[in-house]
Write a structure and sequence with these properties.
With 105 residues, the protein is an alpha+beta fold. It has one domain (13-104): Metallo-beta-lactamase, Chain A, CATH 3.60.15. The chain has two helices and six strands. It has helices at residues 65-77, 96-100; strands at 13-18, 21-26, 38-41, 46-54, 82-87, 91-92. The chain has a six-stranded mixed sheet, with no helix packed on it. The longest helix is centred in the last third of the chain and has 13 residues, at 65-77.
Length: 105
């Protein structure tokens, strides 16, 4: 095995294009871990959330719960029509947030 270290880092947001697709890597705040980053495809209306969202129950031992709730609120404001969670089925449609976070709906 050979370790390969990153040659590009970012603090809050990194945006680039691949062909016609705009890809945004974004840190929304602390969640499951301090460093959770989402992949946001704005023109495709898709968020890939990693373990910020998982189904059916998040693994939250040692997670910053109060911060996580705020982070989910910011994630929701992006308004994606499709969410690909860290674990579980792809979620689509306006009822996404009532499934994940009823208190944020």
């Amino acid at each position: 095995m050979q370790l390969v270290y990153p040659d590009l880092v970012f603090a809050d947001r990194l945006e680039f294009e691949r062909g016609e697709r705009r890809i945004v890597l974004q840190w929304m705040g602390r969640g499951n871990t301090d460093g959770d980053v989402i992949v946001w495809l704005p023109e495709d209306d898709v968020q890939i959330t990693g373990d910020l969202l998982v189904a059916p129950i998040p693994f939250a031992v040692g997670s910053p719960m109060v911060d996580w709730i705020s982070t989910l609120g910011r994630l929701r404001k992006l308004g994606a029509g499709t969410i690909i969670p860290g674990h579980g089925a792809v979620q689509r449609g306006p009822a996404i947030w009532s499934k994940w976070c009823p208190s944020l709906s």
